[in-house]
Amino acid sequence: MTTSVFFTFYGLSIIHRDFERLLKVSPLGNPAMPMPVTMPNLVLGLPGMGPMATHMMKAKFRDKHVTTIRELLDTARELEVRLIACQMTMDVFGYKPEDFIEGVEFAGAAAFLAEARKAHLTLFV
C-alpha cells in the first residue's frame, strides 16, 4: 500500500534533523497528559518541569519497549513511506529543506489533499 504522511506545525519536529532535541513533552496545558492527580498545575508550571516530564515519558516508553521515533522513521523509509513536510509551516517557522532528515518531500496542504482525496484510507491524528 502506498503511504504518505503529512507533517505540519509541531509535527515538523518529528522529521527535523535535530528531532531528538526538539521533541519535548509539556505537562502544562495538555489535558491528555497523564500526571498524578496530586500534582497541581502550579507545580507543572515550575522551571524544569518540561524537561522532567520529557525524561519521564522517554523512560516510560523505554521501559515498555515502545519503538523509538528514530526506529519508526528508519522503518518508514525502508518501506518507502512518503514523508511530506508542509511548506507553509516551514516558511512560518523559518525552516529550510536542509533542516530535515534525508528523503523528506515538501508540499503545501492543498497539494497533499489532492493526493489524499484519492486514498482508500485516511487517518488524522
Helix/strand-derived category reads mainly alpha
Overall mean pLDDT: 84
The biggest sheet, with number of strands, parallel, antiparallel or mixed sense and barrel status, is: 3 strands, parallel
Q: What do we call the CATH topology?
A: Hypothetical Protein Ychn, Chain: A
Would you identify the regions where 5 or more consecutive residues have pLDDT less than 50?
Answer: none
How many H/I helical runs? Answer: 7
Shape: globular
Strand fraction: 5-15%
Q: In whole angstroms, how far apart are the ends?
A: 19 Å
Number of domains: 1
Computed over alpha carbons, the radius of gyration is: 17 Å
Element pattern in H and E:
EHHHHHEHEH
Strand order of the largest sheet: 1-2-3
What's the architecture, going by CATH?
3-Layer(aba) Sandwich
Total beta-strand segments: 3
Helix share of residues? Answer: 40-55%
- CATH top level assignment: Alpha Beta
